[in-house]
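Students often ask why we bother encoding 3D structure as a string. The short answer is that it lets us treat folding as translation between two languages. Here is a chain of 723 residues written in the first language.
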Amino acid sequence: MRFLTFVFSILLPLFSLAQAASSYAVHLQIEVLESPNRLELSWTSDASATSYNIYRKTPSAQTFGAIYATVTGSDTTYIDTDITIGEAYEYAIRKYTNSYTGYGYAMGGIEVKLQTTRGDILLIIETDVQDNLSAEMAELVEDLVLDGWKVTQEEVSRDTTVEYVKDLILDMEDELDNLEMIYLLGHVPVPYSGNLAPDAHSNHVGAWPADAYYAELNGTWTDNSVTNTTAADTRNHNVPSDGKFDQSTLPSPVELMISRVDFANLPVFSEDEIELTRRYLNRVHAYKNGDWTLEKRALIDDNFGGFNGEAFAANGWRNFAPLVGKDQIFAADYRTTLATDEYLFAYGCGGGSFTSASGIGTSAQLATDSLLTGFTMMFGSYFGDWDRPDNFLRSSLAQGRTMSVSWAGRPHWHYHSMGLGHPIGYGTKISQNNSTLYHASYGAQFVHIAQLGDPSLRIEYPRPASSVSVDTVDTFHVLVSWTASQDASVEGYFVYQRTMDSPWFRKNDEPIVGTSFIDSCMIYAGSYEYMVRATRLDADFSGSYYNESLGSTASLTIKTTKTADGVGDFVQDPESDPVTGAFVGSYLSWVTDFRWEVDGNTLTGNNASYETGISNGQLLNYTYELSNVCSAIGETRSLTLSVNHVEEQSFAIFPNPAASESMIQIDADGPIHAIRIYTMDGRQVVHYSNVNGAVGLPQMPSGVYQIQCDLENETKYSTLIVQ
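And here it is in the second language, the structure alphabet:
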């Protein structure tokens, strides 16, 4: 504390001379204007402003590029007319004054739809958590799946190495189709790296916790160069081959979103690690399902001020404006206000220790608190190094309604994407990778930048539908029905489908107003899962987007593939010349309609008579299509007609058509010396000698066959249809 007091005595004059932290932020929000559709950017007036530069890019672009527009220092709005409905845009505003620069960011659009499939999330669970919280873990996995994630779980011991965990992640990245996020749950081994002190304390220089190591997949991490044992806490000592890495900055950008929930070593709480984890998972589950909400406003408790331009609390003013609105951000005391009043977002900063922040509180106080804020940022000395007993940052996450916390000040963080429905992990990733794209201040791309809390969390969730059921409407179609959401603001529903464990596929482009949906032409055998998600058009301070609830599901198994299956044959009259006959459909599984095209004529039916006008030995060309309401097969055929050996039929076959592996009766004018059955291409498939009235058919494919009957003095022919 002696060193801390010294630091603050030196800095006190700077505090009094600096601008308020809010001045270093542009409090930017976006609203939709209609007829025509436009986006209005607006911000809080600053009398010191001389001009504003406005920039725009797509969310995936790596630079804002050239200035998009410039307005005067007295302007507080800008209207963007070049807008495509459904597209998202990211804006940056730079405020210029004679003495300082301010920055603001927002992501906006009109009627933007969320991703259908969010990608793969790797859930790495410490063994003690898995063993003691199996029910909560199952619930967590289900919630992630119902939010569009494909979940893979891996269990690790807290005693394993960080290299083992990293290798596991790399293996999963190779194995999974689209790994996007890592969720560390429990005391998963903590990587340490660097020779740094982001809080600028000489007794805190060395290796800091560095979960970013797990999310950075391509860079080189070494443990052979840093030698520093000056830190007061031996955890921060870093020497070669000690398992702590050398890098103070990321060797390359992180590829994955990452966050951690870890309540180990918090003895200041009466509850143990497992109970604190259970409590956290339960409140996040309830929030995602719309069982509780917080008033959409933000609180800032700034005990640093401008701090010679670093303006730590600008993190709050800048980030909160596009999330709750520039007029819904209030300066107030952190703990006393949040004890009774709801604020969805909060920011608190002050001179710190591992277990406290001046003007905010202590870990011991938090242990008995139940503060009414969901997403918070904090800043102060020491406690950004979160892997310490009774750490203030982790203590803030363990209590009340809080679901996420970050050490936001060195560097500055950027959560504005949450206003358009992105998960908080997206803001973590861009904050970790940021160097010059957004305002960073000190600490850009340092390895210590870390999020605590569920990385999949979104700003808010509609209440879901319930009681989803699926059933076949008829042979080919499936009816999906559900009970409506209890959220009165819900405008409709999206229906998703997947085969088991595959990504979700959205079935409807526009929201369904009712409570049912017919999925047409479900004709392939397999197990299917349907999910219904309530949706509403959220139009607040980042434009508008379709916000979806967690899903509600039901499953269906289709046992038989119902595609049309068959073949079309021309069966000729044995003696006619020119040839007459019939177009006959065979192999008739799931066929309801028959269509024949010949000589410009269209025939229908399973037995369509036709006079060809073609003589023996000539070609007959025809096209057939066998179909049902959902599928069709067919082809074009050429058939050489033949009548040269056929005599008057003097025997009868019944039944005809006959079933494969059945008996047929043969009625002839005399003894039958032999029965031969041929395919239409001349291949013999049956031969019986000395037949006495009946023969058994072997297993034969459905189709049209020629049957030859050898009598005493002559040979007779007929046609046999097998179905």
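Translate back mentally: The two ends are 93 Å apart (CA to CA). Keep this in mind for the problem set.
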